[in-house]
Records
---
Amino acid sequence: MLLHLGQDTVVNTKDIVAICDLDTSTVSHKTRDFLASATKKGQVVNVSMELPKSFVIVESGGKTTVYISQLSSSTLMKRAESNQYLF
């Protein structure tokens, strides 16, 4: 199943490694370091035209991509769990 992350971006739910809240998870320096490293490697895709609220880590074909979304992590989790807004 595919999960809509915002804008025109969908990902396969089986490829999702983590759905994280941007405010609470970036308190940790390890998370900030991970996001900074992913940005330097060109692995971050911003699908948010508004204030970002979450990020989703996706691994597909040995490639890791971090999607920054304007949707809250709880909204994305509910969509993934209930098959709502899946394409």
---
Amino acid sequence: MGVVLSGGIGTLAERSLHAALKEWYAQPGDRCEVDVDGYVIDIVRSEMLIEIQTRHCGKLKRKLERLIENHPVRLVHPIAQERRLVKLGQGGEIDERRKSPRRGRIEHVFGELVSIPHLIAHPLFELEVLIIREEEIRSNDGCGSWRRKGWSIVDRRLVEVLDRHLFQRPADFLPLLPDNLPQPFTNRSLAQALRQRVSVAQKMTYCLVKMGVLQTVGKQGNAHLYSIGSAFLVPESAGRLA
């Protein structure tokens, strides 16, 4: 049995990345673009409602909160580990293609979770992060960000799915904390251990505190000190984390 499209609701407004991920993710027997409780759902797989959101996951906050009242829900979000920048000429032809120096990492998902960290602890909610390779299509229309000198991002295209990570409960995020992290630790020491910007560490600790994975245990000067929540610790003989 193939994938069933229910009327093609919303497909015309999709960007290429979202449409390609939905096609990649769907399995035989799935139903796509289904109306559930007044919301259009990307994929319905048996009892599971699957929503694919390529950016701004916070926009789904109310929708997700309503849906998990009665249904198991999985939010799927891609992070581009590798990105090729494709610039289009005035006639729409490819004028330039180059590799972006920016590389996405799994920790960058916390930038999307800052609006919805409370959902992780809900028994009917789970998150799947897809690590992908993508193309970012840009047009020199003068309407884009000043950082891009007026170039607009007109589309994103899936090249390849490289890896996937499923988070079904707060404890599933523990392996993202570096093994060499001191206890307690600051955002700066976390950033150094991750080799990421402090802003990435700040979003990470904010979300993990909201999930109950971390707790604030004091301050070091003006910096907050964090440690793993007591509910997630196990005796040393059994290992560091539950």
